[in-house]
């Protein structure tokens, strides 16, 4: 933080005028209320033989810095992390169970799996990690917290039902996250199964099978009969290879919280997905706004383990509080540092929840464009009928303001739902409701996530509003 001359004088128990003189002598012209940079503060303090205690702040961007430190020569292949998405009842849960049962039990005496929020299976000597919470809501809500854990999305489409509204949502969520999609055409055992129709319908969303000149992988399967599971795993491994998923095992562990809760006996229990480095029992760790030392680790088979490498999910105990799903974690070699950073983050978190941090809103759009912070303006459109949604989308795309581009990341018919809001929060998007309103959950989430939701009944009003915002002419009292 910065200090004014006056504040520093107070801390040093000196007169501000004396400090101003000293500063002048050091070549810094300052007034009483002027903010001093760290160097100036240090200079003055050294004049008085006072040692400056640097405030330790740990920003989320430090995680990126850490990742950059991963040495190229240390990078090794890591398992893919996969999320299963799709319309309700198309068989996501059944597929997750089928994969677990066909694979995990092999070679595992008893084969009792523990539900810790994610699990790993092995196919031809290679591992794949599956997140146990199917659906795009969980996926995107993590992303809205800054964590991108999914490498590959499996889109389950029931062969007897075809593409449904949540199928489209899932596609848009995966695309917004730039995650490759593999199509699992499920329920092939059913009488009315029509995989060609599924392929046909998906071409509309630029998911075109290889046979038809595209590059999307389709796998036909029956989750309930456990048929086609191996094919699916093979395709996942194929995509993993193309994606060249790598990590540095030698580093301190870094990753994301998959789920966490308070356990009566064990205290805070969190499932962590290691994304880089190796996590070990005894490590000093900062997890979101919590911290501690890893007391014990249990893997997805319920076995105690001493360490966990990249893409491995483990349940840990030893944190001072319960973190949230989507929080990131980092291990520190120095226990004291972990503690200081953990405490600082906890403080900062408390402050932030008081002041609130804002996402994109139309009102500050122009400011952000001016500052060069925004090149794409992400928009989600919900309308009462498909025709209006499309008309609105195409009109919005036509708006031309130099240096910025409108990107419609999702359109849909019906009320604005929580999933729309979560996608908006994760993608920094504005939600436009055309002749529709947010439902109760969406309203609540929009408030907490500070997502800008605009409701309209006339197309040209929407265009006018967005255009004005882009040009910085938005009427503030709107
Ligand atoms: P989710 O909502 O996508 O998680 O769907 P579920 O996994 O709960 O499955 C919905 C229903 O479809 C359940 O009754 C399943 O038994 C059934 N189901 C799932 N996969 C198949 C399949 O491959 N074939 C058939 N016939 N039914 C299936």
Automatic annotation (TrEMBL):
<feature type="binding site">
    <location>
        <begin position="132"/>
        <end position="136"/>
    </location>
    <ligand>
        <name>GTP</name>
    </ligand>
</feature>
<keyword id="KW-0396">Initiation factor</keyword>
<feature type="binding site">
    <location>
        <begin position="186"/>
        <end position="189"/>
    </location>
    <ligand>
        <name>GTP</name>
    </ligand>
</feature>
<feature type="binding site">
    <location>
        <begin position="86"/>
        <end position="93"/>
    </location>
    <ligand>
        <name>GTP</name>
    </ligand>
</feature>
<keyword id="KW-0547">Nucleotide-binding</keyword>
<protein>
    <recommendedName>
        <fullName>Translation initiation factor IF-2</fullName>
    </recommendedName>
</protein>
<keyword id="KW-0963">Cytoplasm</keyword>
<comment type="similarity">
    <text>Belongs to the TRAFAC class translation factor GTPase superfamily. Classic translation factor GTPase family. IF-2 subfamily.</text>
</comment>
<feature type="domain" description="Tr-type G">
    <location>
        <begin position="77"/>
        <end position="246"/>
    </location>
</feature>
<comment type="function">
    <text>One of the essential components for the initiation of protein synthesis. Protects formylmethionyl-tRNA from spontaneous hydrolysis and promotes its binding to the 30S ribosomal subunits. Also involved in the hydrolysis of GTP during the formation of the 70S ribosomal complex.</text>
</comment>
<dbReference type="GO" id="GO:0003743">
    <property type="term" value="F:translation initiation factor activity"/>
</dbReference>
<keyword id="KW-0648">Protein biosynthesis</keyword>
<keyword id="KW-0342">GTP-binding</keyword>
<feature type="region of interest" description="G-domain">
    <location>
        <begin position="80"/>
        <end position="228"/>
    </location>
</feature>
């Amino acid at each position: 933080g910065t200090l004014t001359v006056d504040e520093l004088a107070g801390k040093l128990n000196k007169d501000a005028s004396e400090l101003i003189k000293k500063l002048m002598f050091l070549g810094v012209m300052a007034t009483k209320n002027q903010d001093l940079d760290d160097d100036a503060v240090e200079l003055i303090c050294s004049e008085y033989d006072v040692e400056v205690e640097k405030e330790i702040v740990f920003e989320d961007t430090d995680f990126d810095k850490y990742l950059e430190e991963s040495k190229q020569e240390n990078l090794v292949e890591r398992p893919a992390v996969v999320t299963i998405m799709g319309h309700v009842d198309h068989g996501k849960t059944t597929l997750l169970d089928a994969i677990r049962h066909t694979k995990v039990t092999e070679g595992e005496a008893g084969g009792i799996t523990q539900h810790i929020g994610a699990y790993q299976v092995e196919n031809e000597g290679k591992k794949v990690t599956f997140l146990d919470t199917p659906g795009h809501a969980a996926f995107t809500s993590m992303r809205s917290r800054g964590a991108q854990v999914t490498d590959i999305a499996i889109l389950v489409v029931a062969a007897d039902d075809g593409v449904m509204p949540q199928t489209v949502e899932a596609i848009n969520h995966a695309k917004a996250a730039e995650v490759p999609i593999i199509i699992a055409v499920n329920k092939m055992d059913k009488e009315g199964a029509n995989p060609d129709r599924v392929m046909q319908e998906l071409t509309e969303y630029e998911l075109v099978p290889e046979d038809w000149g595209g590059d999307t992988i389709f796998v036909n399967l029956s989750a309930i009969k456990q048929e086609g599971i191996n094919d699916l795993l093979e395709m996942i491994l194929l995509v993993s290879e193309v994606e060249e998923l790598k990590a540095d095992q030698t580093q301190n562990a870094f990753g994301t919280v998959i789920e966490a809760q308070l356990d009566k006996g064990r205290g805070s229990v969190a499932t962590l997905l290691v994304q880089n480095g190796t996590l070990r029992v005894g490590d000093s760790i900062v997890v979101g706004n919590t911290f501690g030392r890893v007391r014990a680790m249990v893997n997805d088979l319920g076995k105690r383990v001493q360490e966990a490498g990249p893409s491995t999910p483990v349940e840990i105990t030893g944190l001072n509080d319960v973190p949230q799903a989507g929080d990131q974690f980092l291990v520190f070699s120095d226990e004291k540092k972990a503690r200081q950073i953990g405490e600082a983050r906890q403080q900062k978190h408390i402050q932030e929840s008081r002041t609130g941090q804002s996402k994109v809103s139309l009102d500050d759009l122009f400011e952000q464009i001016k500052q060069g912070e925004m090149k794409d303006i992400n928009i989600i459109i919900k309308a009462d009928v498909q025709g209006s949604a499309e008309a609105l989308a195409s009109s919005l795309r036509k708006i031309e303001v130099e240096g910025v581009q409108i990107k419609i990341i999702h359109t849909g018919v019906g009320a604005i739902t929580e999933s729309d809001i979560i996608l908006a929060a994760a993608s920094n998007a504005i939600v436009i409701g055309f002749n529709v309103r947010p439902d109760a959950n969406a309203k609540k989430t929009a408030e907490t996530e500070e997502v800008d939701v605009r409701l309209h009944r006339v197309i040209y009003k929407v265009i006018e509003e967005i255009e004005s915002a882009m040009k910085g002419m938005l009427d503030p009292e709107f």
